Amino acid sequence: MPDWATVKDVLVHLIDPWAFMSISFAHIPATVVGLIHDRKYRTLFSFSGFREALFGTFWATVGPNVKTNAEQRVIPLLQGRVKGGIVHDDVVSTPVHGTVLEVGAGSGMWADVFARFRENADDTDSADGLRNRKSTGGHITKMYGVEPNPISAKALQQRVKDIGIDDIYQVVPVGIESVDDSTAWDGKIEPGSIDCIVGILCLCSIPEPEKNIKLLYRLLKPGGHWYVYEHVKVWRGGLLLGLYQRFVNLIWPHFLGGCELCRDTEKNLRAAGPFQEVDLAQPADQPSYQVLPHKIGILTK
Ligand SMILES: C[S@@+](CC[C@H](N)C(=O)[O-])C[C@H]1O[C@@H](n2cnc3c(N)ncnc32)[C@H](O)[C@@H]1O
């Protein structure tokens, strides 16, 4: 007798990416109207430009839901309460602190969470899940938010202002491949100057991941921490699931701003350079038949 609850859950997971893509598809009219309103006719008729604009519009509505679902893992990760893919009650690793680089910051969905880590932030409320932060010294003093999508970068700038962290948060409106190029933006991030890198669902979207993850590695101080929450290539769940993921990936990047489903991000991270410690695992509560399995954890340089 099949376990119908599991069968239903498997089907939901298989259909999930198509539901996500259809929501993006439904944002095409709003994207067209937005581009016409902003007189961006060139983007309207450019395949890659339109794809980027569509993602910016889509993520503005869908991103908050994705964040709500991810918060139960990402907030503990930033607090140093995740190890081996398991969320612990107490601090078991290093909370995010110092000079932080957020890769692919999008429209600033996580800015409110970062605001609660900043120095002198009011941390009296233990109900928000940020307990133990002060006692472990998880204080952010400076942030760079790297975001090349012009729609998202503009929203990010506004969001950090609205939240009141624009004094410590600098928007870097270029791709990660250009952060060390002072001609591409109004600044430069020196190698070895970053205490913590935070990447939330973004290494799937950057170009040339092997090369650019190495570039990020160079920016990190020795002893610095890299906080990872990424969806990755299927590595358990069988050959058929892997093939299905590759099939979905034929269409997925066009509706999701170039996001790639089948990246072996852990391999790319490990290949970036030597790490003292790599703690990456699939979140303990995720089933093996996820079409979008995740890896969560911290790498210590
Ligand atoms: C799925 S979104 C996640 C955004 C954000 N981290 C969040 O959780 O809401 C992926 C982000 O990566 C950004 N991205 C794409 N190419 C990039 C690049 N070359 N460098 C940095 N970020 C990039 C996209 O513009 C997009 O905002």
Short key terms for the protein model shown above:
alpha/beta, 301 residues, Rossmann fold, globular
Give a verbal description of the structure.
The chain has a single domain, classed as Vaccinia Virus protein VP39 (Rossmann fold, 3-Layer(aba) Sandwich). The protein is of the alpha/beta class and 301 residues long. A seven-stranded mixed sheet has the order 5-4-3-6-7-9-8, with helices on both faces. It has a two-stranded antiparallel ribbon with strand order 1-2. The relative contact order is 0.14. It contains eleven helices and nine strands. The structure holds S-adenosylmethionine. The site of S-adenosylmethionine has 22 residues, from loops.
